[in-house]
Specification:
It is a single chain. This protein is of the alpha+beta class. The protein folds into 2 domains: 40 residues, no CATH class; 74 residues, Alpha-Beta Plaits. Helices cover 48% and strands 27% of the residues. The strands form 2 sheets. Strands 2-3-1-6 form a 4-stranded antiparallel sheet, with helices on one face. A two-stranded antiparallel ribbon has the order 4-5. The radius of gyration is 17 Å and the shape is elongated.
Length: 118
C-alpha cells in the first residue's frame, strides 16, 4: 500500500512541477511547493492495528519514540475483535514514514503489527 501511495504522490508532484513550470514559477518556488505537497500527502499520523488486547502501551510508545517526537497517542478497542489499535501522530511526516517502513509487520507481543499512514 505504501508503494502505491508513493507512486501516486510522485505523480502528483510531477503534475505540480509541470503546472508551476507552465506558470513560469522560479525553480525555488517550484521545489518548495512540491515539498509542501508531499509532506501534506504523506501525513504525520499512523494507525497501528492487530494489537493484542492486553498489550503494554508504554512499551509501544517507547518503541515509536525511537522514530521521533510523538504529539498524540490514542488507543482504541477494535470493535468485534479481541484486538486494539492505536493512532499515533508524529511531529513530522518523515518520522511517521520511517516508523511505517521499519515496523509494519514487525512482531509486538506475539502479533505482527499492521501499520499504515492514516
Amino acid at each position: 500500500m505504501l508503494q502505491m501511495q508513493s507512486i501516486a504522490i510522485i505523480c502528483l508532484g510531477v503534475a505540480v512541477v509541470c503546472l508551476c513550470t507552465a506558470q513560469r514559477g522560479s525553480p525555488t518556488d517550484i521545489d518548495q511547493l512540491v515539498v509542501d505537497i508531499l509532506e501534506r500527502a504523506l501525513g504525520e499520523e499512523i494507525r497501528i492495528k492487530n494489537l493484542v488486547s492486553d498489550f503494554n502501551e508504554d512499551s509501544l510508545r517507547s518503541l515509536l519514540e525511537l522514530y521521533g517526537t510523538i504529539t498524540s497517542f490514542k488507543v482504541y478497542d477494535d470493535s468485534g475483535t479481541q484486538f486494539k489499535y492505536a493512532q499515533v501522530k508524529f511531529s513530522n511526516s518523515q518520522d511517521a514514514a520511517d516508523a511505517v517502513a521499519d515496523l509494519n509487520r514487525a512482531m509486538f507481543m506475539g502479533q505482527p503489527m499492521v501499520i499504515s499512514v492514516y
